[in-house]
Design brief:
By secondary structure, the protein is of the alpha/beta class. The chain is built from 9 helices and 11 strands. The strands form 2 sheets. The chain has an 8-stranded mixed β-sheet with strand order 4-7-6-5-8-9-11-10, with helices on both faces. Strands 1-2-3 form a 3-stranded antiparallel β-sheet, with no helix packed on it. α2 crosses α3. The longest helix has 14 residues. It is globular, with a radius of gyration of 19 Å. The N and C termini lie far apart (about 45 Å). This is 23S rRNA m(1)G-748 methyltransferase.
Length: about 280
């Protein structure tokens, strides 16, 4: 079966550049994508492109990303998804043509859901999801082929300066200098971090709160457009308890006995929104 070429790669000029020489990646053949200087990058059977060229060590196993996807499917983060959409709809009109990057996309389900909702609501957009962990990107590409999925490093994002309208950075490491570089003037960064009560019922809670430094660093680079808190109680289904136990944030610090006694858990997230100066 012929692999789908995401529309964003057909743009002229293409916003994606070669990580070796920074030349545009603008051609496709049966063997993959090639930059203007001849460096070639294969498109995997699932549709993603590996621009990293190596397999970095990761703190998280592939099964943890599959766990995150299953939790997303149960509605575990539906409150966050809705709020992110509200913020995007408040800032942009339906006829705006947007390029949206999800930096640290993981298994991509939250980003895919957002893109699908925007498509349903007639928004014009191109989606790019990047993560350094290949199994996660493979999962993302397998489930939503209309976005461009890249195995890449957010410390050196392979996108041209000023080529992105919106950067999403959800519960993932950030590189504000790179975000500023790739955003066009007036471009929007939406970063989500754990709130002070996130997963407060678990012993892991004490390891993940305390984001004053993160918020201050955000303001230094972007100024703060607004701050939104998403907090709700999630009733845990029996099948969700095992999934929560295997989340990346909890898997190494939470005992199964502690979790099995819970009937609800607190989701508490803070969304920071800022624009690049014109």
């Amino acid at each position: 079966m012929e692999k789908m070429i995401p529309d964003v790669l057909r743009e002229n000029p293409c916003p994606v550049y070669c990580p070796v020489c920074q030349a545009s990646i603008n051609s496709n053949n049966t063997n993959g994508f090639t930059c203007l200087n001849g460096h070639q990058f294969d498109q995997a059977a699932e549709g993603f492109i590996n621009l990293l060229g190596r397999r970095p060590r990761s703190l998280f196993k592939a099964q943890y990303f599959n766990t995150s996807r299953k939790l997303m499917a149960t509605g575990f983060f539906v409150g966050l998804e809705r709020k992110l959409l509200e913020l995007l709809y408040a800032e942009y009109a339906v006829n705006d043509s947007l390029t949206i990057l999800d930096a640290g996309t993981g298994e991509g389900m939250l980003f895919s859901n957002i893109l699908l909702c925007m498509r349903w609501d007639q928004y014009r957009h191109q989606g790019i999801g990047i993560d350094h962990f290949m199994p996660a990107v493979k999962t993302a590409a397998r489930h939503f082929e209309k976005a461009l999925w890249l195995v890449a490093d957010i410390q050196k994002i392979p996108l041209k300066s000023g080529s992105v309208d919106v950067v999403l950075n959800t519960l993932a490491p950030a590189n504000y200098e790179e975000f500023l570089r790739i955003l066009q003037p007036g471009g929007l960064l939406i970063k989500t971090i754990p709130g002070p009560e996130h997963l407060k019922e678990l012993s892991v809670h004490k390891h993940i709160h305390g984001n004053d430094h993160t918020q201050e660093l955000f303001r230094q680079y972007f100024g703060q457009l607004q701050q939104v808190r998403v907090r709700f109680q999630k009733e845990l289904l029996e099948e969700e308890k095992d999934l929560v136990l295997n989340m990346p944030a909890t898997a190494v610090q939470c005992e199964e006995l502690e979790l099995q006694q819970l009937s609800t858990i607190t989701i508490d997230l803070i969304i920071l929104c800022g624009r690049k100066a014109y």
